[in-house]
Design goal:
about 170 residues; Four Helix Bundle (Hemerythrin (Met), subunit A)
């Protein structure tokens, strides 16, 4: 049952990710990203990381997505413009390059991952013990303190930049 739920929500996450990239309206893309975040939270639950799943929903699907939507609304971003006629070359070259990339990824995955009866049981659903608040807090504020702080500064810079851009358009 766990494997079925995993494949279901992994498929939903990938589908929402593809929809997010292909949408022309930024609000629709942000809403599709919420679908990806929700699916990832359920995948964390399947692995037994309840705290990480809750943090995923509260922080990413809640706070960060509200921030994204706020910045999108502040910038008054409309629907993306239709591509010009010169994009035919990108489409002709893009399809074979995409197929080649997928082929290389499949080759590398099959080459590096050995498929044996014992390797199929490496992940046991519900057996993860590193997803509690103590483990996450210890890792976040010791090992990953610098990336955590750099990310917060980058988010702050993005908000200030959005406000500056929106103020210039109003004037």
């Amino acid at each position: 049952m766990d494997a079925l739920l995993f494949f279901l929500f992994a498929t939903i996450a990938v589908a929402c990710g593809v929809i997010m990239v292909t949408q022309r309206h930024p609000v629709s893309s942000a809403l599709s990203l919420i679908g990806v975040m929700g699916s990832l939270a359920i995948l964390y639950l399947l692995l037994g990381a309840e705290f990480i799943a809750a943090a995923q929903m509260i922080v990413y699907a809640g706070a960060i997505m509200v921030l994204f939507l706020f910045v999108i609304m502040l910038l008054n971003a409309g629907e993306e413009r239709k591509p010009s006629r010169e994009s035919w070359m990108a489409r002709i070259l893009g399809i074979p390059l995409f197929i080649g990339l997928l082929g290389m990824l499949v080759f590398l995955i099959l080459r590096t991952v050995s498929v044996s009866p014992t390797s199929a049981t490496l992940v046991q659903f519900g057996k993860f013990v590193g997803g509690g608040p103590k483990e996450v807090g210890t890792a976040l504020f010791t090992t990953y303190l610098l990336p955590f702080e750099v990310t917060s500064v980058l988010v702050l810079i993005a908000i200030v930049g959005a406000v500056v851009l929106a103020r210039k358009e109003i004037d």
